[in-house]
Amino acid sequence: MMTDRENFLRTVEFRGPRWITCTVGLSPGTWQKYREDLEAVAIRHPLIFGDIRKGSIDFDAMPPTYGKGEKFTDNWGVLWENAHGGIEGIPVGHPLADWDKLDTFTPPDPLVKAERADRPDWESTAQRIHSAKQHGRIFWAGGERFFERLHFLRGYENLMIDFAMDDPHLSRLIDMVIQHNTTLLEKWASLKPDVIWMGDDLGTQSALMVSPAMWRKYLLPGYQKLFKIVRDSGAHCYFHCDGNILEIIDDLIDAGVTILNPQVGANGLDNLVKMCKGRVCVNLDLDRQNILPFGSPQEVRDHVREVVEKFGSPSGGLMIFGECQPNVPLANIEALCQAMEQFQLVS
Prior knowledge:
This protein is of the alpha/beta class. It has one domain (4-343): TIM Barrel (Alpha-Beta Barrel), CATH 3.20.20. It is 44% helix and 12% strand. It contains 15 helices and ten strands. The protein has helices spanning 4-12, 28-34, 36-44, 46-49, 122-134, 147-154, 156-165, 170-190, 212-232, 249-255, 264-267, 269-276, 291-294, 297-311, 330-343; strands spanning 22-26, 71-73, 79-81, 90-93, 140-142, 195-199, 236-240, 259-261, 281-285, 318-324. The chain has a seven-stranded parallel sheet. It has a three-stranded antiparallel sheet with strand order 2-3-4, with no helix packed on it. Helix 14 (297-311) runs parallel beside helix 15 (330-343). It is globular, with a radius of gyration of 20 Å. The mean pLDDT is 97.
């Protein structure tokens, strides 16, 4: 019997998986809103959610930055604030908004501190990687942000001006963040996980946040270095990126991304099929801006069917991800799970 790990690797490597890996993401706010009713949905769909037992979910648990009214300072000194609750807050305090502070700024130790917490012991992490592989499960290692960390530290408007003015301090900031991430990725690479995850939101609804020329001048070299560490270790390189990124998909593939996580809503399904199918494995982020929150259950099912029909292939290369925030009706979450189960077998 094929394990989840083997099927996953066959999908990424275009070696003929048996099924399409499908995942439903439920934000803390979604659990808080629907509570036992959502738990019942999860229990009905073990192929999607795994073994969830009644009473095992804390519906009101909120990780750092997710609590309404919360203010939280992360390990880089960035102040986060949350106005709504249940979804991630936003950075409002930027420790390097003034370049005069750059000379005395010290990043956290990436081997000891994650963005918002302490890192688990590396020896126990190595044991968990070994155990996951032995039991046929994929082990995901997590990198950190690059572009987002730059504007968290500087402030978004400041960073955009830095790009436009070619500020001489900018290269020092970029080097600092890349060195931080390099240290972390090299440690992960030494432990031989199956996948190393990284993510940065680089697009707006209709275009990149910076021009393709500025992307290639300031940002692409850093990503190339980070992705190379991952690929040289034998791990697959997973890159999450919200927004319209059509102009840089070729760059990301050439730089070493083997699993790309783009949004249907911002990029268009047909555009993504044209640019990605057969070239890079895609964990496709279903339309969470329109269809999942505002469509009917039948429209949700039709959306999943269309994705499978257009992007699916016996050779692999397609995974499906549906993110459900509190604005997604419970009936649509149920329909999403049903459709994933119906269409996930590779034909």
